[in-house]
Amino acid sequence: MSAEIRSQAASRYEQDPITVWIEPENESCQFPSLNTVQQLLNRLGLGVNDALIIRNNTLLTPDRKLQPGDHITVSHVTSRG
């Protein structure tokens, strides 16, 4: 198999990372692979009640699946009691 064919075959299996924008810190990070919102929360060290997870203006619950190339906003919840 030529190097070109191997390269094309490998690129089919490469996935776009999940891009995460964190508010209010205004920081961005990327994850090569995550399956669910819960996994994202775990990687960020957050609990389910610590932040709102948003994709395409839609709130996501911890059980929702994430897809390669997703752009996710994590908005920290602050209590003003």
Throw out a few tags for this protein:
single chain, 30% strand, 5 strands, 2 helices, 81 residues, Ubiquitin-like (UB roll), alpha+beta, ThiamineS protein, globular
Structure notes:
This protein has 81 residues and is of the alpha+beta class. Helix content is 23%, strand content 30%. It has two helices and five strands; from the N terminus they run αββαβββ. It has a five-stranded mixed sheet with strand order 2-1-5-3-4, with no helix packed on it. β3 (51-55) and β4 form a beta hairpin. The longest helix has 11 residues, at 3-13. The termini are far apart.
Sequence stretches where pLDDT stays below 50 over 5 or more residues: 5-12
Distance between the termini: 65 Å
Cα gyration radius (Å):
16 Å
Query: What value does the average pLDDT take?
Result: 87
Beta strand count: 5
**CA-based shape:** globular
Percent of residues in beta strands: 25-35%
How many domains make up the coordinates?
Answer: 1
SSE pattern, N- to C-terminal: HEEHEEE
Percentage of residues assigned to helices: 10-25%
Per DSSP, the total helix count is 2
Side-by-side strand order of the widest sheet: 2-1-5-3-4
Proper CATH architecture:
Roll
For CATH, the homologous superfamily is named as Beta-grasp domain
Biggest sheet descriptor: 5 strands, mixed
CATH topology name? Ubiquitin-like (UB roll)
